[in-house]
Amino acid sequence: MSTSKVVIVTGASQGIGAATVQAFLARGHRVVANARSIAASDHPNLATVAGDIGDAQTAKRIAETALERFGRIDTLVNNAGIFIAKPFTQYTSDEYEAINGVNLDGFFHITQRAIAAMEQQGSGHVVTITTSLVDHANSNVPSVLASLTKGGLNAATKSLAIEYAKAGIRVNAVSPGIIKSPMHAPQTHETLASLHPVGRMGEMSDIVDAILYLDAASFVTGEILHVDGGQSAGH
């Protein structure tokens, strides 16, 4: 267990988050998994914390669970996010607040607590899932609130990487294209595949592999790693 890390994963009940949890567990790491609705686990290396990541008290419970059960926090995967694609003038105030609540408040509260613990250890890694739409706007997928929030997280990633570099804490992001996950109905896959220069959607394993790479890449910090089938390079 000397090489086993303690990893927090948000948005962990399905899709990329659930796949990330399983990947870290398969490598012998210990995981604290969070989602609004997530079942309790009897796995010795897995603790689950149900709750809204946008709520500061949820973040508090996640961090406390990691420290009390496993003794430290080595990696935080900020995966939780809300994505709503619609014309800018049609967003409602409720949608705006919900997206900001998860994408920004959720990032702020748990990252602040995780970095505080990492500072005490003198090491740690934060990786955040953003979106290639920040760099590659597409009129077929109008999504300004994703760009507003996830673009801010890309900028925060670089800022935190510099702020905490000498503290031994790395901060990176994975910027996906459109991934074949429960978010997208199968009948939409052909159209969504065509939005990528490589002609296919990404697999959840593509994003998990990127997270695992960044977690092991000790000389990489402040990186926005595009895993997007060429979208960020343009058409």
Automatic annotation (TrEMBL):
- Look up the domain of life of the source: Bacteria
UniProt KW keywords: Oxidoreductase
InterPro entries the UniProt entry points to: NAD(P)-bd_dom_sf (IPR036291), SDR_fam (IPR002347)
Q: Name one Pfam family in it.
A: adh_short_C2
Q: What GO molecular-function term can you cite, just one?
A: oxidoreductase activity
Q: Which family does it belong to?
A: Belongs to the short-chain dehydrogenases/reductases (SDR) family.
Database matches in PANTHER family: OXIDOREDUCTASE, SHORT-CHAIN DEHYDROGENASE/REDUCTASE FAMILY (AFU_ORTHOLOGUE AFUA_5G02870), SHORT-CHAIN DEHYDROGENASE_REDUCTASE FAMILY PROTEIN
Q: Spell out the protein name for this chain.
A: 3-oxoacyl-ACP reductase
